[in-house]
Each structure stands twice: as C-alpha cells, then as structure tokens.
C-alpha cells in the first residue's frame, strides 16, 4: 500500500479526471475526481483511488477493464448523503384525482342491502312474503335450540394473511483499520508507514493537506520523519483547530475493545469511538491500528 502514495501524473488512470475537465486529474484522493469510463461519470471511493486510480495498478481495476459507458459498481462508488425533495407532478396528481372519483362513485352507487331481505332471498327467492317469514322463524328457532343444548361447535376463522417466516438479519463483518486504509466519518485518516524518499511536504501534497496540519495531529512527531516510522495522515483537511493530536496504536491482543483501550490510555471513550468509527463494545482485530486522542500542546521532537 506504501507504493500507492508515490503518485505521479504518469501513474494516474487515464479515465480519472474532473467532472467538467476529464483531461485534468488530481494527484491525491478527492471527491472531485470522477471516473469517465462509467456512464454517468461517478466518484470512486477514496480508498479505491489510493489503491488503484492513483497508482500504476489502475489497469487491475475492474472498472478500467470493463466495457465503457457502464454504471459504476455500487461497492466502488463513493457514498454521498443527499436530501431529496418529493416532487408531485401534475400527471400524478391527475391520476390520484381520477382514482378518488372512481372510489367515490363505487361507494355511493352500490345499493344498500337489507339483512332480512338477503336472508329471505336465500331461503326462497320465489316464495311469498308470509312463507319466507315462516321459514326464517324456523331457522332462528333451530339456532336457539342448538345454543341451548350446548352442542354447537364454533368454526375456525381462516386467516387471509398468514404469518410469514422470520427473516434472518445479515451480520456485517467490519474490516480492520490496517496500514494505508482510510477510515473515519466526518474526518478521514490514514495510518502510513514512511518509505525512502518521502517527506512531510510530499505526503501533504498526496493527501491534500499541509505539513503543519500533519505536525499538529501527530502526537510527539519526530521531524524529519524516519523511514519505517508510523505517521497519521489526514485526507482533505486544512483546519485542525477543533481536533486533538493523535497517537497511533496497533492492536496486539485478542478480545480487546475500545472501552478497555480508553481505560488503558486514560482517554475519553466517546472521542475514541468517534475518531476511529468503531463501536465501544466491538471486539478489535489483531493487527489493526487505532488513533488515540491526545492533548495538542506538546512540542514536536526534532
């Protein structure tokens, strides 16, 4: 994954570009980068851009290998929350108005049936009124006798809507926060291992931030950075006034949760859950990385 940060113009996917300027592409993962091999053009996920679109491995991308003018696969498209207003066109309002009129006509045009007349017609449609009344009295008397003897057995009422079998809820399996894998909701971070030739300015250009921002959010950062050292990189972040500093921590124990990590590092559990985007009671994965919130008034070592 470290190779993905060595991004040059020659290594960028030829289909990646701005929405209104496909010939111009950015050298860092961004929501402004669109894939023009799909129809309509769509923004790939930021982690997919880091792994494929902005590296020499773009030829392995399944969108690159697919036929042009197809839709972006849902698992690769960047999810964007949008609020849509429900629009009622005159066409749908006219259909609704016609349906209401038809329902009203059906209700008021249906003749009201009299219960007694219905019962008489079932007994003898052609019989005179007196005979029908006599037959009805005989039927009623038979029902009374059955009730008095206690031999009447109620019939079960059939169900028009049988109870469907319970549906099993699929269980989502969380992917761990490993090196070079972006994570976070409101803020996006990457835990990166420095390789030869990298500097703070180089890494800042690749993640659309500044060296000062990287220094501010890394707790006890050693400058200049060393090869193989671990550093936290923010993506598309220019203002850190409301953020703490962070310390990278790798999980090496089984059955560990953020609740236990918060106690161990004496840090706020809610902040730990918020910045890592992991539930407090969820079991952590061995080998994944966490960012521990720290006070940002520490001196940079170097």
Structure description:
The chain is built from 9 helices and 6 strands; from the N terminus they run ββαααααβααββααβ. 30% of the residues lie in helices and 9% in strands. It has helices spanning 46-53, 62-65, 90-109, 115-123, 129-149, 200-206, 211-217, 258-265, 269-276; strands at residues 16-17, 34-35, 188-193, 230-235, 245-250, 289-294. Strands 1-2 form a two-stranded antiparallel ribbon. It has a two-stranded antiparallel sheet with strand order 3-4. It is of the alpha+beta class and 302 residues long. Among the domains are: 2-65, no CATH class; 188-294, Membrane-bound Lytic Murein Transglycosylase D, Chain A. It is extended. The protein starts with 15 loop residues before the first strand and ends in an 8-residue tail after the last strand.
Short recap of the structure:
The chain is of the alpha+beta class and 302 residues long. The protein has helices at 46-53, 62-65, 90-109, 115-123, 129-149, 200-206, 211-217, 258-265, 269-276; strands at residues 16-17, 34-35, 188-193, 230-235, 245-250, 289-294.
Number of strands: 6
Helix fraction bin: 25-40%
- Class from helix and strand fractions: alpha+beta
* CATH-assigned homologous superfamily of the domain at 188-294: LysM domain
Q: Which stretches are low in confidence, meaning pLDDT under 50 for 5 or more residues running?
A: 1-8, 115-125
Chain-averaged pLDDT: 81
Order of helices and strands: EEHHHHHEHHEEHHE
Summed up, the helix count is 9
What can be said about the biggest beta sheet? 2 strands, antiparallel
Specify Rg, calculated over alpha carbons. Answer: 35 Å
Quaternary structure classification: single chain
Provide the spatial order of strands within the biggest beta sheet. 1-2
CATH architecture of the domain at 188-294: Roll
Distance between the termini: 27 Å
Strand residue percentage: 5-15%
Q: What's the CATH class of the domain at 188-294, please?
A: Alpha Beta
Q: Which overall shape is indicated by the principal axes computed on the Cα atoms?
A: extended
């Amino acid at each position: 994954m470290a190779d993905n940060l060595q991004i040059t113009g020659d290594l960028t996917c030829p289909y990646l570009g701005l929405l209104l300027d496909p010939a111009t592409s950015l050298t860092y993962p961004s929501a402004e980068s669109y894939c023009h091999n799909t129809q309509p053009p769509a923004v790939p996920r930021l982690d997919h851009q880091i792994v494929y679109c902005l590296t020499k491995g773009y030829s392995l991308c399944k969108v690159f290998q697919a036929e042009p003018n197809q839709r972006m696969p849902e698992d690769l498209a960047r999810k964007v929350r949008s609020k849509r207003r429900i629009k009622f066109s005159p066409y749908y309002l006219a259909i609704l108005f016609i349906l209401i009129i038809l329902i009203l006509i059906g209700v008021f045009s249906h003749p009201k049936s009299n219960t007694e007349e219905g019962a008489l017609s079932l007994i003898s449609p052609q019989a005179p009124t007196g005979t029908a009344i006599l037959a009805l009295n005989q039927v009623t008397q038979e029902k009374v006798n059955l009730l008095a003897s206690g031999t009447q057995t109620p019939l079960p009422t059939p169900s028009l809507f049988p109870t469907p079998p319970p549906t099993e809820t699929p269980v989502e399996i969380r992917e761990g926060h490993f090196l070079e894998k972006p994570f976070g909701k409101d803020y996006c971070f990457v835990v990166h291992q420095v390789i030869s030739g990298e500097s703070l300015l180089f890494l800042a250009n690749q993640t659309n931030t500044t060296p000062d921002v990287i220094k501010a959010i890394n707790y006890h950062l050693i400058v200049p950075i060393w090869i193989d050292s671990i550093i936290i990189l923010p993506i598309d972040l220019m203002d850190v006034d409301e953020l703490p500093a962070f310390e990278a921590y790798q999980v090496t124990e089984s059955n560990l949760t953020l609740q236990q990590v918060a106690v161990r590092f004496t840090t706020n559990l809610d902040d730990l859950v918020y910045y890592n985007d992991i539930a407090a009671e969820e079991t952590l994965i061995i080998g994944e990385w966490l960012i521990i919130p720290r006070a940002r008034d520490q001196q940079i070592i170097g």
